[in-house]
Amino acid sequence: MQIYLDYSATTPPHPDVLATLHHQGATLWGNPSSLHHWGERAAIALETARWQVAQLLNAPTADSIHFTSGGTEADNLAIFGVAHRYPTPQHIIISAVEHPAIAAPARQLAARGWQVTELPVDATGKINPLELLAALQPNTVLVSIIYGQSEIGTVQAIAELAQIARRHRILFHTDAVQVAGRLPLDVQALDVDLLSVSGHKLYGPQGSGALYVRPGVELVPLLAGGGQEHQLRSGTQAVPTLAGFGLAAQLAQEQLPTEAHRLQQLRDRLITRLEACPYFQLTGHRRDRLPHHASFVLRDFPPEITGRAIVRQMNLAGIALSAGSACHSGQASPSPILTALGYGEIQARQGIRVSLGRDTTPEDIDWTVMALQQVLHRLNPSPLPCVGSSC
Prior knowledge:
By secondary structure, this protein is an alpha/beta fold. The protein has helices at residues 15-27, 37-57, 71-83, 100-111, 129-135, 158-167, 187-190, 239-275, 307-316, 336-340, 362-379, and strands spanning 3-4, 65-68, 91-95, 115-119, 140-144, 171-175, 194-198, 209-213, 280-282, 293-298, 319-320, 351-355. The chain contains 11 helices and 12 strands.
C-alpha cells in the first residue's frame, strides 16, 4: 500500500490541471507581450489565470495579482520590494515561526543594518497581538506574519494583527501559502497589503505563485528587464504553467466548502488516535490550525530516534510523511520552529508532520497510525503502551 501524507510539502497536480498544461503547452506557446495573434492568445490565457487567482483571494482587481515562480519569490518580493524603497535601514517585524522565505530575507536585511524584531510565540505557536503593538516603532515600515505555519499547523489571527499595523499606517504582509485552497481567503476582509500564495500547494504546477499587492502599494522590483507583471516582475511569463495555476485556484475555490470540512474530520481522527499513544505529543494549536495538518513530537524517546529516522522507516512501509517542514527536514539541526515553541533540543529533532489531501481516506489514517506504532516499537522496543486499541 502506498499512502502519500505530505501534502504540505507539495500536492499532486489535479488531473484537469495536467490536461490544461498539456493543451496550453502545445497551443499557447506565444509570448503574451507580443501584439500578433499568437501573443494575443497567450495573453488571454494569462489574464484568465490572473482573474481565477484573484477570485480565490477575493482581490479587488485582477491587476493586484502579480505572478511569480512560487511562494518563495512572492515572499522575497514582498520583503525586499518594501525594503528597497528606503535609502537607509528601517525596522521590520516578523514572527519567530516564519517560513525560511521570510526569515532568510529578514536576516539579510539585518546584516545590512536594518532592525528586525522577531515576535515570540506561545507554546502553541500563537502570536499575542499585544506583543505586536509593543514592538512597533516610529521607523517600522513592514510587518510580515505567516498565516498558517507549515510545520506545526497553527493559524494566526491575521485580520486582528493586520488591523494593528493598519492603525499605525504600516504595511502588512502574510505568507498564506499553506492556507490557500484549505481555508477561505479574502484579502479585503483581512485588510492586508501583501499576500503570498503558491500553485503547487493547491494541486497546481510547481514553479507558479503569486503576490497580491493592494492597489496603491508601491514595491521596488527584484528583477530588471522588460517590465512584465505591471512593471513588478520582469521576464516572459510561463503561460501554460500559470494557466494550470489559475485552473487549480478555480477548482480549489469550488471545492473548498466541502473539502475543508472533510480534511478537518480526517485530521481530528488522526490526532485522536495518535494522542491515545502516550509517546505522541501534539504540536501547534489544537483549534486554530490548518484543516489538513497534524504534527507531533515524541515524548520520552531516546535522542537518537529523530523525526527523520521515523520518516525513513515509514517510507519503507510505503507511507510518505515529513520531519517538520520540507524546507527544514533535510537538516540534522533542531527545528527552529519547535525551538521557538519552547521544546528542548532533543524534542526539536523529533518532530513529524502528517498532512492530508484530496486522495486521503479514513482507511489511510488508520493504516498510518498502525504503521507508526509498529515503526516506533521497532526503533524503541519498550515504549509505553497505547490506550485501548485506538493506536
